[in-house]
Amino acid sequence: KQEVTQIPAALSVPEGENLVLNCSFTDSAIYNLQWFRQDPGKGLTSLLLIQSSQREQTSGRLNASLDKSSGRSTLYIAASQPGDSATYLCAVTPDGGYQKVTFGIGTKLQVIP
Amino acid sequence: KAGVTQTPRYLIKTRGQQVTLSCSPISGHRSVSWYQQTPGQGLQFLFEYFSETQRNKGNFPGRFSGRQFSNSRSEMNVSTLELGDSALYLCASLAGTGETQYFGPGTRLLVL
Description:
- The structure holds 2 protein chains of 2 kinds.
- Chain A is mainly beta.
- Helices cover 0% and strands 58% of the residues of chain A.
- Chain A is built from no helices and 11 strands.
- In chain A, strands 2, 4, 5, 9, 10 and 11 form a 6-stranded mixed β-sheet that branches. Chain A has a 5-stranded antiparallel β-sheet with strand order 1-3-8-7-6, with no helix packed on it.
- Chain B contains no helices and 11 strands.
- In chain B, strands 2, 4, 5, 6, 9, 10 and 11 form a 7-stranded mixed β-sheet that branches. Chain B has a 4-stranded antiparallel β-sheet with strand order 1-3-8-7, with no helix packed on it.
- In chain B, strand 7 (64-68) and strand 8 form a beta hairpin.
């Protein structure tokens, strides 16, 4: 059974700092890994999708990496802004691609002005 | 392109009642997945529909059921509500296998 862990559970940083969020998974037979952000009481917004054959994906100030063999992914946020404050979740789709996706609990990020 | 819509946005029910939630995916998307989100358990997969067929199911009791219509709209039903069913219910649609999931705003269900 796939388990997804995100560390830390919460993080508070001053504005402008670069930061890294971590995601680890127990079963490396994955189809893809996706990072989302969730604002309080809202749905999820997709940030980056990494296919199992890829090592990283970039979008603006965000960079996500994937190391399947070690069961790890990181989300790097450069020059953090107060608007980045949200909960960040990673989600793993198993091999086969069917959508029995497993989510981590998330990392709650607060960027202090 | 319109996003994923979910109705209603908020619901208050009492124990023992049943509830039906609706999800309209992005136009052209044939896959719809449902998730339950609670503070203690996080996001848990309920089921996934593709072209009106349930393709996958999570570990939830039979009180949780769903269906998908020919226009890809999906409904989920929870019968005999329990206090522990209070949660944010999210649906997601995607165009194809392994593609980006797009989530709706969710339906917040409170069971009293």
